[in-house]
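Entry 14. Two folds queued back to back today. First construct below, sequence then structure tokens.
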Amino acid sequence: MRRAASLALSALLAGVAVPAGAQSYLERPPAGETVYFVLPDRFENANPRNDAGGLRGDRLVTGFDPTSKGFYHGGDLKGLIRRLDYIQGLGATALWVGPVFKNKPVQGPKGQESAGYHGYWITDFTKVDPHLGTNAEFKALVDAAHARGMKVYMDIIANHTADVIRYREGLAEGYPYRSRADYPYSRAGGLGGRAINAGFAGDEDSSPANFARLTDPSFAYTPYVPEGEEHAKVPDWLNGPIHYHNRGNTTFSGESSRFGDFVGLDDLMTESPAVRAGMIAIYAKWIEDFGVDGFRIDTARHVDPGFWRAFIPAMLETARKRGIANFHIFGEVAHESADNGHIARYTRRDGYPAVLDFAFQGSVRAVLGQGKGTSVLADLFDGDVLYEGGEAAALAMPTFLGNHDMGRFATLVRTDRPGISDKELLDRVALGHVMLMTLRGSPVIYYGDEQGFVGDGNDQDAREDMFASKVASYNDNRLLGTTRTTAQSSFDADHPLYRLIGRLAALRAAHPALARGRQVTRAWSETPGLFAVSRFDPASGAEYLVAFNTSDQPIRAATTIGASASGIESLFGACPTQVDAPGSVVLALPPFGSMVCRLLPDHVPDKQGS
């Protein structure tokens, strides 16, 4: 191994047995899941015949170019099915699949084209992209996962479609955002324009009667559908410009964040009752026909709250009628910060049951990448009361370390700590995964992280192939824990990070306290070092102590625990052999070390862990 796993990592890799009699996937609550997130195009190519999506021509027609990081590479749904053993072997209980809908193959200005390999440029919301397979193959994937007791979460989009609509203005500087104040719905082309949409009271009134008065979409720009693309989108109602905001490109701040085109993508007018009804019908059908177990919703913060208050209950009710009582919905509220106050508002105002926990990501990066004290983590969990449902709801928040947009956690830590050795980077990344798998929340593993992937940056640079890659900028990366590169197939079940995550997943399965148990912060500091929490079994109330050392020096420090504990059992790492005093125990942790300990009480605790 070019960069051998350090002693701090190697010591963690002893086996843990997986308990028998696993609960049915339909019975499991979202809080207990371990999620594996994958972009199908970049995972496994089992059917080369669909690489070009049934299209003929060069890459600007088909979107297929396996040598370019911005085009389709050939991964497909059959490939996912083929690799379910690998995914389940990691300990994943749920599979989050990047968008599978038919996309516009290629878009972008001349010389800057790229493909819809990622799935977020949808033209047909009713069909699987031919590059990935067929609707029948998606159903086969869902059925195969269910047969293994795994859930399947679909990645969906309601904010926008592919870029089809054009504006007649043809401005040299592109299409900057035009506000509702300067370009009201009542005038064509701005305040001095001709009167249109008489009686329309604006987008704050989503009643059918009000939107019946919105008949002309030319209030900011003059939108049109290019010849030959009049029916490019499915269902057909999506082809009408009246269903879009048509205000130019968002700046991702202020009013434009909700009403602007997302880098040119056609921004749906989700305040409209027709759009709401249309989107509800589209996604209800995927639940009814395929039996998926949840939705990850893209660009949630760019859609009006009223849409979500209509959409989310409709999806939950559709799932309930389909027999999916634990249907999970979580929104992407991209906000790179350690403060969960921002994302929590979407659970209160917009009605989201859960949101991707960007605050968790920001906090772990702060302590392992940026050298912040462990009080950052204490503050994070203290803020769980802000979510609708409070600390109990936080147990189901999908936590993560890195993703396909911001980049991989290893990349972020390397960016934060220039010159870091590969050995130390592996130790920090390994500790991050221990935190991910043992602290509150539903952990999400970004595909490839378990193989030591370290991308060059974010977005396209963080979307490497798991099958043998032909992208030069991927294949020259220095991966962690292995001598292999992405030029070789990356499904190594002996990789130290794969083994580590698998062990932690088995620990979560064997001990529900680590998956669904209430969490209490026990020890933290203003400097790198000790962070400790107790987690409590949701049925018995038994207490578990989880502790971490975020510093590069060994530490010995005391932490509080429940006063009833009289003994300690090591489950992970080297726990103390005894309690030092009622309510206190001294911990010894190596650099970047961690431990999970089961506390043995004098008496059986109640369900509150008292």
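Second construct, same run, same settings:
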Amino acid sequence: MPSLSIIARRSLPALLACLVLSACETTPPVRDTTSIDRQVARAERLARDGHAAEAAAVYESLAVQSPGELRDRFLLRAAREHVRSGNRAAAEQILQRVSATLPTVDFALRAQIAAELALAANRPNDALAELNRIPQPIPRETLSDVLALRARVLFALNRPAAAIMAALDREASLQTQQEIHENRKLIWEGLQRNASANADFTVPPGASRTVAGWLELGHVALIAARNPFTARDDLTEWRTRYPNHPANSLLTDELLPTLGVGLAYPSQIALILPLSGRHQAASIAVRDGFLAGLLQQDPRERPFVKIYDSGETGALSAYRRAIAEGAEFVVGPLTKDEVAAIASSAETSVVTLALNQLADDQGVPPPLMFQFALDPEEEARQVAQRVVADGRSRGVVLLPNNEWGQRVFRAFDTELKTLGGTIAALRFYDPAARDFSQPIRSVLLLDESRARANALARTLGMRLEFEARRRGDVQFVFMGAQPVQGRSIRPALRFHLAEDLPVYATSDVFEPDAAANADLEGVVFPDMPWVISPDQVSTQLRSTLNRHWPLRARIRGRLYAFGFDAYRLIPLLQAGRFGREHAIPGMTGLLSVDHSGKVRRDLDWARISSGQAILLDANKTASAQPLMRATVP
């Protein structure tokens, strides 16, 4: 959980003395001010030494002993330390006890704390609103902290130009080279996050050359993140255009020397795929994507890759042979049965990146096995998160009546309930059907509406003019469908009076064909950058595949991206870089490895408009917060 690291710790003694004296003019002296001073000194020391929870407890104790403004000041510092310790709930509760009328300097601190809480809860718009409440001019003693927080918030809102300007305003007030260096790191880290979220790096009119240089560096950050093998050349080219830019020192001292750190590959890698048999076409696409990643690398640094056909020999035999022939890292196999065979063999003696995952009833993978899959269940969970983040808590679900539909339902239902949402109705449809009217009428309660009208007509003994009405207690439709079914279900929903209900789907519904997607107008779905991102690297790789293998690009493009990312993940696993803080922007999503050994993919979001995928706000792609939560006043 993020800590309140940028709000400076300020010394209180002089201000405390003043407030204590003023309080004593109207309040009998009931406490030892020397003891108060000692407690204040202790709280400040604990805070300075990083013992935030202990500092918060002392500040809360001081607040109980203090009147008026002094009480509020101690409560604010207690809230600040609770945020630093990760105890957001306690910080929010304390903030609610602070008076609404505060001196300017304390109001600024309150706004900072509230903004940090909102930012930590993935509510950057609320965080910016809190910062905008600080009276101008911003008190000098908090100016640096406020501007740093404003820059972070604007980066979180995917507004890099405004964030850079806030950070540069802050830099003008900094005194030491170390502070300036940290400020420039703040900009670079924000640019990297915005690059992975496809932010707009267009230079605004009238921007200074310094701002322009930072924004162009954002483009370079994206290229470096998606395809790090060319990063050094891209950064060198940027430096020739901006030889005097302040970012140059950061690049020279920190970035250029470490570019190869995350690109350390073992000398020999085995790629195991069923290249013969019924999985041949899928395996060829994965293989070609994997080799495309290899070929991006400098020939002098490429590992030796040996490919084994598990369709011919069986996955376990191929694995044993690869190890015997010196493989230091194994990628594959591809199918669930193959992965299960190797996992249960107890023969994983080198780090192995399986290109599928074990079923829930197949146990825990061995320690050296990691799992990377294009998992529809993970997509379903991210759809549930998006629905809640969009403020919709109750909806209906339409899924195919097959094993895929059951898996997607369980994942969506569990995640939605965890976040406080509800499925009002669920219908499984026949995926081979051509007409989906019956399950749609049923899930929208149109048949019940008609039945009630017919019953009333029989009771009255007369014919009634009647217009069916769909249920009014739902806010969304979640549709699990392949493109063919989706192109029938979406128009049928409109026909059956659900025109105003937002429709969400998994990526399976979309294919990059504007004419084919015309009937999916308005559908919101998550997908990999390879398919929907307009960034330079994704576009270049798509163009290369389209040029050389046009049929494969259309049918198997996602698997090509899957193979490319499998190659990119090898150094991450080799180095043991787990957790979201080590995420890399891949072609299949923002990739990170959790501590159970599964590769997580945070996807981009789009809405279909005129057959095209239009990217949506990236801020809502992060996990939503539960609907019932305490909020900062």
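Quick look at the second one. The first helix runs from residue 13 to 26. DSSP finds 25 helices and 15 strands in the chain.
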